[in-house]
Amino acid sequence: MTGRFVRLGELDRAPLAFSIDGEPASGLEGDTLLVAVLNQTDRLRVSEFGDGARSGFCLMGACQDCWLWSESGERLRACTTSLEDGMRILTQAPGREWLKIAS
Amino acid sequence: MAEDRIIVVGAGPAGVRATEALVQAGLRPSVIDEGQRDGGQIYRRQPEGFLRAKSELYGTEADRAAKLHETFAHLKPKIDYRPETLAWNISEGSLHVVRGAQSEALAYDALIVAAGATDRIMPVRGWNRAGVYSLGGSQIALKAQACAIGRQVVFLGSGPLLYLVASQYVKAGASVAAVLDTAPRQLRVKALPKLLARPDVLLKGIALDRHLRRSGIDVLTGVHPVAIEGSDERGVEAVSVRLPGGEVRTIACDAVGLGHHLRPETQLADLARCAFRFDAQTRQWQPEVDAEGRSSVKGIYLAGDSSRTLGADGAEAAGRLAALAALKDRGHAVSANEMARLTKTIARIDRFRQGISEAFPWPHQAAAELSDDTVVCRCECITAGELRAVASEKGATELNRAKAFSRVGMGRCQGRYCGHAAAEVVAAAAGLPLEQVGRLRGQAPVKPLPVAAGVALP
Fold first, then answer.
1. Global pTM?
2. What b/e sequence results for B321-352 when a residue is b if at least 16 CB atoms lie within 10 Å of its CB, and e otherwise?
3. How many domains are contained in chain A?
4. Could you tell me if residue A2 is inside a domain?
5. Whole-number Å distance between alpha carbons of B346 and B343
6. Contacts of A57 in chain B (CB under 8 A)
7. Cross-strand partners of B181
8. Given Cys at both, which of B76, B253, B254, B310 links B154, Cβ 3.0 to 4.6 Å?
């Protein structure tokens, strides 16, 4: 899967390793989480309302379309979160299995 | 006199110039900034370690950006600066802020809200697809992260930002497939007398248009958007528009920058119970302000694009003026001459603003023509048909009532990106003038808070 975004410069930055749903990925120091993910793949998540892939919209913290999750369940607004080395990102909120059992 | 407690919300051009005036008066204001660094959106700074020159990031506005950043750097040790902090509510004399999981209520004697604006969006069928970004978002990808939003980008909508962002993309080496403006070109001629209030800015605008054409980019005006084509799986694959002659043109692309000028961020003004008025020309509700930035509520001042879309230069002037008004109201000596001068500058910029909204109008008539299956609320995927049904079948012709029945405006963005279009859809369906439909009320928290913040609503 190629990335949705295209880097046009500022390539001389330190690489950072992270993972998306367990798959290894890499970004650059100074990337936002949104930019790091969209340079690897074409989406951030799948809409919970059934209209397919989503990849963010406003990039300025206003639309909240770009929520991702850490493995510990912390919600991350990808456009205003800086990529950190070793981040383990989930595209769905963890704990859904538990919800299924509970219902 | 006891130290005045003044809070400035926002660290863009309006917030920085307001802060500067307060510091010059010997005060130590608090500055609440959602960004990691000052500059706001227009003069947004790239992260540490990026090497592009300011001229690359801000073009003709590089000097203004540099001066603003420099001013703030000098102010920083003299103020209580709170970056990455959200002002999420206002209650009797206190501003509620949260940073990470830390929440706090800050008491104030005067509050200057310079919260900026976001893109104003008229939906197009398929605008919920992956690969569609607001024009502002498209610009941030480039300015703050040196990325293009796709390999083949179409810019669609209207307003100065349409041409600015497209031109910046071309300069940065991105591939721009087309620039599609919903405004007919001849409107610019009609707006010329007002646009001449700022001949320098007008010339910059003409230069952007010329740059795009000389670069071989298709710039089509007076278009009617038909659809953003593609699939749920792959996202955007093309944009279809109807040209003024009736011909439908389909342009292949994998990304779209979409926007119709700007709308003010008015939630804090709303929560402070400021009075609003309907502006018939731009067809939107705006907080009432006097010529110097006072809202209808004592102690609350509004400046910059969160009050009226005057642009960055207007925001600098309005920010400083609002701070001077606050100082004057609190008994400080201020220069009446300077206030008069700033008021005059703003009046000139406001004349230009009117010209811009005449030249690049909000295409409100498109709302009535949206197909029933067009998504209006992209947060929760609610269609124009569903919204029309609550207006006609349930009689919900007041916007907050229509929201309660349809959930349009209740999702993650809290109506920022659907609110204006939803009002137009309801008004058209009900056959009412837009102002009778009302506006979505701002609600606390103005943005979602982390549960860990554990804040109690006052």
1. 0.96
2. bbbbbbbbbeeeebeeeebeebbebbeebbeb
3. 1
4. no
5. 5
6. 132-134, 137, 378, 417
7. B157, B221
8. B253
Q: Is A17 on the interface with B (CB under 8 A)?
A: no
- Whether the Cβ atoms of residue A7 and residue B115 lie closer than 8 Å to each other: no
Partners of A82 in the β-ladder: A32
pLDDT tens series, chain B, 458 aa: 468 999 999 999 999 999 999 999 999 999 999 999 999 999 999 999 999 999 999 999 999 999 999 999 999 999 999 999 999 999 989 999 999 889 999 999 999 999 999 999 999 999 999 999 999 999 999 999 999 999 999 999 999 999 999 999 999 999 999 999 999 999 999 999 999 999 999 999 999 999 999 999 999 999 999 999 999 999 999 999 999 999 999 999 999 999 999 999 999 999 999 999 999 999 999 999 999 999 999 999 999 999 999 999 999 999 999 999 999 999 999 999 999 999 999 999 999 999 999 999 999 999 999 999 999 999 999 999 999 999 999 999 999 999 999 999 999 999 999 999 999 999 999 999 999 999 999 999 999 987 666 665 55
C-alpha–C-alpha distance, residues B67 and B56, integer Å:
16
Domain assignment present for residue A4? The answer is no
Domains observed in chain B: 6-118+263-356 (3.50.50.60), 121-260 (3.50.50.60), 365-437 (1.10.10.1100)
Is B321 near chain A, with CB under 8 Å?
Answer: no
Tell me which of B48, B145, B383 to substitute to probe the interface with A (most A C-beta atoms closer than 10 Å).
B145
Tell me whether residue A91 is in a domain.
yes
Polymer length in residues for chain A: 103
Tell me the one-letter amino acid at B34.
E
Query: What six digits make up the tokens of B74?
Result: 């000098």
E-state strands within B289-349: 300-302
Tell whether A3 lies on the interface with B, counting CB pairs under 8 A: no
Half-sphere exposure for B221 (CA within 13 Å, toward CB):
14
**Residue B258: strand pairing partners:** B134, B156
Give residue A64's domain range: 15-102
Nearest-CA distance A96 → chain B (Å): 17
Closest CA to B125 of B229, B224, B221: B229
Locate all alpha helices (DSSP H) within A4-95, ordered by sequence.
Answer: 33-38
CA diameter of chain A: 50
Tokens read off for B259: 């926007």
SS3 B157: strand
CATH code of A65's domain: 3.10.20.740
First to last CA, chain A: 35
